[in-house]
Amino acid sequence: MAMKGYSNMPENTESCASARLEGVNASYKDLAEVCGRIRNKKTDWAVTFLTMASEGEIPILFKRHNKKLGHRRELGGRKGRYPWKAAKIVLKTLQSAISNGKTMGLGEVYTIVAASANKKDIYPRMAPKGRTARSYLVTSRVEIILKGSEVPKGVTVTPPKKADAGAKAAKPAESAKPAESKKEPAPAIGTEAREQPKLLKDEAKANPEHKHEAEKSADQEKGRTQAPHQHGERNKR
Questions:
Q1: Cα gap 204→219, rounded to integer Å
Q2: Measured in whole angstroms, how far is the alpha carbon of residue 185 from the centre of its chain?
Q3: Fewer CB within 10 Å, N- or C-terminus of the chain?
Q4: CA dihedral in degrees (22, 28, 33, 36; nearest 10)?
Q5: pLDDT at position 154, please?
Q6: pLDDT above 60 for 22
């Protein structure tokens, strides 16, 4: 029975490519250890690593399922073995996921986000003659999920719009307050009274006949301006 979905599918599936292989006649324990060595790695490195492991050139580190397992000099004395069959199956699944990513337009560089292997189906076999125990055929499944380096096809990313320089210049001009009209300074108090005697004197010089009258009017104006001061001095006394 086929599965409906992946067990480790990330939330953002737009930039991810995946592949799955089911009903494989291989040990799920060996497949799980091989998947654990390529998880969170780049696909270029993983393809080279699995190719060498499938040819039996390098051993695979076993972190689990390593009871009574021999130590390997290539692994620095840690436990491991040469699961070439499991390495071939994982390599096939990885190449399928890379092809799916290229078809979706996710670029050429990928990262292995998730890689896992589990038990799939169990089939009973015929009991051998003369024995009561019967062996079972256990199949496995492998799933790999990659994350692409580019935006997938059909998805457009629009950067935020920048405000135009003309719009920025127009906004301050609109919000600027109207220029206030310049007010003319008010004339100082007493300037008219000071200018009047001068005008009278000028008239007297121009018309000597009216000189006496001009002097009288000038004396009267002086008396008006000096009167408040004299009154203030009397009050002080």
A1: 13
A2: 60
A3: C
A4: 40
A5: 62
A6: yes
Percentage of the chain modeled with pLDDT above 90:
44
pTM of the complete model beyond 0.70: no
Domain ranges of the chain: 17-127+134-148, 191-236
Q: Which helix (H) or strand (E) holds 113?
A: strand 110-124
CA distance linking residue 55 with residue 51, whole number of Å: 6
Q: Give percent above pLDDT 70 in the chain.
A: 62
Query: Residue 168: is its pLDDT beyond 70?
Result: no
Q: Is pLDDT above 60 for 181?
A: no
| Count of C-beta atoms within a 10 Å radius of residue 122 | 9
Q: Which of 72, 54, 73 is nearest to 62 (CA)?
A: 72
Angstrom distance (rounded) from CA 101 to CA 37: 21
Distance CA 145, CA 50 (A): 16
Pick the CATH number of 17-127+134-148 from 3.90.470.10, 3.40.30.10, 3.40.640.10, 3.40.50.2300: 3.90.470.10
